[in-house]
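Need residues for this backbone.
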C-alpha cells in the first residue's frame, strides 16, 4: 500500500535530474494525485482516509529519497480544504486528480513552489484566502525549495479554517520527512567512511569516527518513536516534541555527514547536498525548534485535571 501511495519514483536510488522539472504538479518520486486522493477520502463518499501513522511512514520515505516539492503543504492544505463541504468539492477533486498543485503559507511568509502551484492558499488573520498571485521567487538554501512570497488579499475561502489542526499535520509530516533525511545521511556516510582510507585503513575504523556516527544513530533512533508516537496521539505538544527531536537529529547528522565526507561533502554536484540542504531547511519549516519547545513547555505547564 505504501508503494502504491508514493508511486514508482521512490523505489530506486535516484531519478533523472530533469524529471522534477518535466511536470511541476507532481514532485519527483511522488504521485501527488494518489496522495491527495487518499487525503480527500473522508470528504468523498465517506471513505476512510489515511491515518497519521500512514502519513508518517510515507514521509519518512519521502525524506529518505530527498523528494522535492510542497509535500507537508499538500497535507496541510487538504486538511484546510475539507471544511466546509462546498470548499472540499471545489478544490479537492482537482487536487486528487493531479490537475492542480497546491501550496500554502501564512500571510506574509514564503510559500514553497508558489510559482509552479496552480492553487496558492494563504492563512490570513481573517481566515483562509486564495492568494491572487505571487512575487518573484527568492533564493533558498535548498535549491529544490523555491520560496515565493504570496500576494495579499484574494478570495476569502473560509473565515474559520481548522488552522491549528492543519499545523499539527504539517509538523508531523515535516518531522517524519526530517527523520527520513537523517536516516539517508547516516546510511550514506557509513558507506562512505568504509570506502575512504587514511593511513592505510578505512576512516570508519577510527574510534572518533565511530563515536560521531553512533551519536547520530542514537539521536535518530530516539526521534523515531517520538514521531510515530505523535502520529498515534496527534496531540499538538507531542507533534511539536517529535518535530524538534527529528529535525535536530537530522541537523546533527547532517553536520556529522559533512565533516566525515571532507571536502567532497561541500560539493553541490555531489548527491549528499540533496539531503544536507533539506536537513537545514526542514529544521525551521512549520515551526522552529524554539517555537516547538514553547508548545511543549506550555502544555506541560497547564494544571492537570
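Answer:
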Amino acid at each position: 500500500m505504501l508503494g502504491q501511495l508514493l508511486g514508482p519514483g521512490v523505489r530506486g536510488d535516484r531519478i533523472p535530474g530533469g524529471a522534477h522539472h518535466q511536470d511541476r504538479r507532481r514532485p519527483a518520486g511522488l504521485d501527488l494525485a494518489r496522495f491527495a486522493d487518499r487525503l480527500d477520502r473522508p470528504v468523498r463518499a465517506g471513505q476512510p482516509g489515511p491515518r497519521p501513522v500512514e502519513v508518517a511512514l510515507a514521509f519518512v520515505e519521502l525524506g529518505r529519497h530527498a523528494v522535492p516539492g510542497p509535500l507537508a503543504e499538500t497535507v496541510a492544505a487538504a486538511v484546510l480544504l475539507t471544511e466546509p463541504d462546498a470548499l472540499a468539492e471545489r478544490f479537492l477533486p482537482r487536487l486528487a486528480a493531479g490537475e492542480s498543485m497546491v501550496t500554502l503559507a501564512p500571510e506574509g511568509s514564503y510559500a514553497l513552489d508558489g510559482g509552479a502551484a496552480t492553487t496558492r492558499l494563504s492563512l490570513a488573520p481573517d481566515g483562509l484566502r486564495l492568494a491572487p498571485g505571487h512575487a518573484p521567487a527568492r533564493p533558498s538554501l535548498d535549491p529544490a525549495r523555491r520560496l515565493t512570497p504570496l500576494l495579499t488579499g484574494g478570495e476569502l475561502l473560509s473565515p474559520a479554517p481548522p488552522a491549528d489542526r492543519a499545523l499539527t499535520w504539517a509538523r508531523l509530516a515535516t518531522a517524519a520527512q526530517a527523520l527520513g533525511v537523517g536516516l539517508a545521511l547516516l546510511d550514506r556516510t557509513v558507506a562512505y567512511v568504509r570506502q575512504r582510507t587514511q593511513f592505510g585503513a578505512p576512516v570508519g575504523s577510527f574510534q572518533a569516527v565511530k563515536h560521531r556516527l553512533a551519536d547520530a544513530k542514537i539521536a535518530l533512533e530516539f526521534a523515531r518513536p517520538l514521531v510515530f508516537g505523535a502520529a498515534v496521539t496527534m496531540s499538538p505538544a507531542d507533534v511539536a516534541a517529535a518535530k524538534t527531536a527529528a529535525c535536530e537529529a537530522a541537523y546533527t547528522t547532517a553536520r556529522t555527514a559533512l565533516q566525515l565526507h571532507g571536502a567532497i561533502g561541500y560539493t553541490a554536484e555531489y548527491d549528499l547536498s540533496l539531503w544536507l540542504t533539506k536537513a537545514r531547511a526542514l529544521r525551521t519549516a512549520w515551526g522552529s525548534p524554539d517555537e516547538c519547545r514553547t508548545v511543549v513547555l506550555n502544555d506541560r505547564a497547564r494544571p492537570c485535571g
